[in-house]
Amino acid sequence: MLWGLIDVQRNPLELVKLKGTNKRLKKPQTVAPEKFQELVLRLREPYRTMVIVAMCTGMRVSEVLALRWEHIDFKVGAMLVQQGVVNGRIGRVKTEASNDYIPLDPEFAQILLNWKGEKLTGLVFPSHITGGCYYAGVIQQQILKHAGEAIGLLDIGWHVFRHTYRSLLDETGAPVGVQQKLMRHSNVATTMNVYGNASLRTKQKANSKVVQMVIAQAKPLPEPLTMAV
Fold this sequence. Notes:
- By secondary structure, the protein is mainly alpha-helical.
- It has 9 helices and 5 strands, in the order αααβββββαααααα.
- A hairpin with a 4-residue loop joins β1 and β2.
């Protein structure tokens, strides 16, 4: 009999796998807004603005490094994410859902404008060596890791900022459908279908709450405490 082959000590539901569900068992690492401020103070440009962009938008590092000024509309208050970089090569973003507009909080937009200066087109973060895209892994190992260790954040990587953004959205009480659109996930859960598409205004409201938690309440950022290599 087949029944004799079944482990009766195991919950049968453990054998069920749902399509589209997250397989991660380990709780994702996040960073508190106050600790993030400490990290920012340890970074010099362009890495300082890079991590602020990642933290305030939830963008993947591949998308941050491929971002171009012509994809940012400061008048409308939105940026279009449609490219990503892998191993120095720019291509299309991860999924169709990833190709979407991200709202710009006014204070966050001002940080971008301060970094922009007189630049009109091109990469937001061009390599000072090649003029092309930076390598995310190099920045993580040579810059983020050391800055994080200096303030007690071990093994910090780019994924931490995306996970933190998602966590902070949850803290603000943003509807799950709005969270899905801001994270630009193809499928977070079946519940997403109930909420439908979130309007830009709704996304702006939810995103701004996160930005306020991350940067708006802080004093103007001084020069970094240490100069990362």
